[in-house]
Design a protein that fits this description.
This protein has a single domain, classed as Porin (Beta Barrel), CATH 2.40.160.20. It contains three helices and 14 strands. The chain is mainly β. Strand 7 (172-179) and strand 8 (182-189) form a beta hairpin.
């Protein structure tokens, strides 16, 4: 995916450089149908990818959770989710522009049965009840380079390469233990928030509905790698899955539909 990001950047720079002589200036003539800028809303379905989607709970002898197993340590139990945000940009020539996006994504928890069965096997008790509060929440604040190639007055191919600030939060996991008909307490893997650099690379197509309104369909790859330092409360021993730090790439493919207000220089 990094290669795709580099390709988008080089393509945009090359097209912009080759088109400078023929490009529409920032202030278009009254007869031009090209908009100079846009602001709008985007939203859609987000597909989580990579290690944080894994649901591994691998045990060894006597059901012991293997604390040094790479699959155990990388598993994030993330499901798919939704994403939406606000996006805007300004084209300083026909093909190239700058802009940014503020977006929020939420991902559910996947593999609840797997993790609950794993705790049950590790503790060797009568009953384990595992509940999850919330999910993975990710905020992105990014800016960067935008590219468009118009095929007609209404249709254009678009691309973008953005980087910036990402803030992510993990779900809370509560594990209630019961043995011999007696409740043996509940321990909790607390929610944790961590910040990091993130980036997005996107390709899409836009359609001009009217003089000042447009639609766009985008495929966006997003990635960040926050370092979560996780607190575990009411934990009296290290039996079973115990995560105190989680640092894995949080990557996703977002399929988004956007509605934009088109801005034209006077």
């Amino acid at each position: 995916m990094k290669n795709l990001s580099i390709f988008i950047l080089l393509l945009a720079l090359n097209m912009g450089a080759n088109a400078q002589d023929a490009a529409t200036p920032a202030k278009n003539s009254d007869n031009s149908t090209m908009s100079n800028g846009f602001i709008g809303l985007i939203g859609g379905y987000s597909i989580s990818m990579g290690n944080w989607t894994h649901t591994s709970y691998i045990t060894g002898d006597a059901g012991k959770w293997l604390s040094d197993n790479p699959d155990n340590l990388s598993a994030g139990f993330a499901g798919n989710g939704s994403t939406y945000g606000v996006e805007g940009g300004w084209y300083f020539c026909k093909y190239l522009g700058i802009g940014g996006v503020v977006s929020y994504s939420h991902y559910g928890f996947s593999g609840l049965d797997s993790i609950s069965a794993g705790y049950d096997k590790s503790f060797d008790v009568d009953q384990i009840t595992t509940t999850v509060s919330g999910g993975y929440d990710i905020w992105n604040f990014m800016g960067g380079l935008y590219f468009r190639y118009p095929f007609s007055d209404k249709f254009a191919i678009t691309a973008k390469l953005l980087g910036g600030f990402t803030s992510a939060t993990t779900p809370q996991i509560d594990v209630a233990v019961e043995d011999g008909g007696v409740e043996d307490g509940t321990f909790t893997q607390q929610r944790c928030t961590a910040n990091s650099f993130g980036y997005m690379a996107g390709l899409g197509v836009s359609y001009k509905l009217s003089k000042c309104m447009g639609l766009n369909l985008q495929g966006i790859y997003a990635s960040s790698e926050p370092d979560f330092l996780i607190d575990n409360t009411n934990r009296n021993n290290t039996i079973g899955r115990l995560i105190t730090e989680y640092k894995q790439p949080l990557t996703s493919i977002n399929i988004c539909l956007g509605v934009t207000y088109l801005i034209k220089a006077k």
